[in-house]
Amino acid sequence: MALPAADLKDALARCAKGDRAALRVIYESECPVMIGVAMRIVKRRELAEEVVQEAFVKIWRNAHRFNPELGPPKAWLYAIVRNQALNVLRDGRREDLVEEVPENTADAVQAYSAADMLPEANALKRCLEGLDPRRRTSVLMAYVDGFSHGEIAGRLAVPLGTVKAWIRRSLISLRECMG
To answer: What processes does the entry annotate via GO biological process terms (predicted)?
Structure first.
């Protein structure tokens, strides 16, 4: 059951003073929704649960930093969850949890089929065909299928930095080609 903002504010103030029961109140009120928020970012239940666990450690340690004048308590709590989820993606810890799929199957096939559905006279199709196949696949997996850079790296079995560079350079090439 979600707590009203005043009760969350009170619970955070009690957490700042070391009241573990107050943390439990916040946990019981917000945990299910927090897991949902984390899952939208990291896409895996077990990883989302890890994100929320780490977020609650941060909430406990930083409750004294909550300032109700800067915004509502839920905004503060969910910002911690969101930032923790994004940190997990940035750290690359997620790559270890993504099943490796060879480039020419599953997701890569979906990405290629999206490009194939463009009309032959389409400038975007022409520009995409001008890219290296792995770079094209990375761009399509990111922008058509919605995969994060970490997911793409795990699925294509290449380093995260390589995927980021491929996508950045490919977007520059596409912009120049389309312009």
So the answer is: DNA-templated transcription initiation
